[in-house]
Amino acid sequence: MTQKLFEEDAFLREFTATVLSCEEKDGHFLVILDRTAFFPEGGGQPADHGTLGEAQVIDCHVSKGIITHTLTSPLTPGETVEGHIDWARRFNFMQQHSGEHIFSGLVHSTFGYNNVGFHIGSDAVTMDFDGRLTWEDVLGIEARVNEAIWLDLPVEAGYPDAQTLESLPYRSKKEIDGDIRIVRIEGYDICACCGTHVRTTGQIGQVKVVGLQNYKSGVRVSILCGVRALAWANSVLKENQEISHLTSEQFGKLAGAVEKLLHERDDYRFRLEQNAMRLFDADMRGLSGDRRMVCADYLAVSQLRPAAGLLAKACALALVLIPREGGWNYALCAQGTDVRVLSKQLQSRFSGRGGGSADMVQGILGEATADGIRAFFLAM
After folding, report:
1. Which residues lie across from 63 on neighbouring strands?
2. Burial, 38: exposed, middle or buried (Cβ in 10 Å; 0-12, 13-18, 19+)?
3. What is the pLDDT of residues 260-278, one digit of tens each?
4. CA–CA separation, 30 and 281 (whole Å)
5. What is the CA radius of gyration of the chain?
């Protein structure tokens, strides 16, 4: 059994240990020590990274009490090695994990819902609850979590004896064999947990809810704690500063300014599309014959089908092209003729694809000149 130094002191950053074994596998080296401060992946918390001697520790797992470190280079069994924890990564995870405990504990005590899934992702902490919550609900919990942080309460972790454990109303997502480690934040949460935590709630810094979505029969809540919450706030501030600069509007009025710009854009787009159809109508009227093609770089892709339908009213077979990067958008239309066979000929000749009904097919064609497509179209 590997001695778990991270359980004795989660703030231990450096330690020495004896190398018990080293095995090469898939280009990496699996090392077992007599003791370690590296937390192995488990309970929703990722593994610690860092160094053992000169080797990089890139992963860490536990099985039957034995912790295996995945290294980039080998160590010699029997040697004493010095370990260094990537502290920024570890403390980040500790803030996220402790913040999640308070949040989940309050959801459980307030709504009676269980946390049935927890993961410290690279972007956010996600928590899956087995009941529905609204934004008003989660923002209310968020306020109470931050109140707990401001109180700077102790975060206690340990293995209570069987008698004490039996009397504790602790949360647990699964049945646990053997000794059970309990993490307690008085008045907020008591939970079975193998992870690393801050010493006091004040070290979490802050908690911010950034996501809520229906998930299975409950909800998935995304939060940011500590350093992640600060980084997120700075990114939001920077983005709002850029929007303020672009719109020449003050903070607090940015939504109105953006809404105004969107209305103006939609108005200009509507008028532009109207004018484009007028120009298409003029181009169309200048054509003759049973097969007619218009290459219209002034049309929006959304106008492709209406334009082809309009053109087909004046001829037996109509083809409308709109340039796109690396080729063309096209619509092929006819009145009373199945155009799907002809469309496949176009696609085969010009490396295209598409689909549709007997009277209208829409798709894309590969690189070709408009004159080349026209010649092939008229000769089909």
Report:
1. 66
2. buried
3. 999 999 999 999 999 999 9
4. 72
5. 32
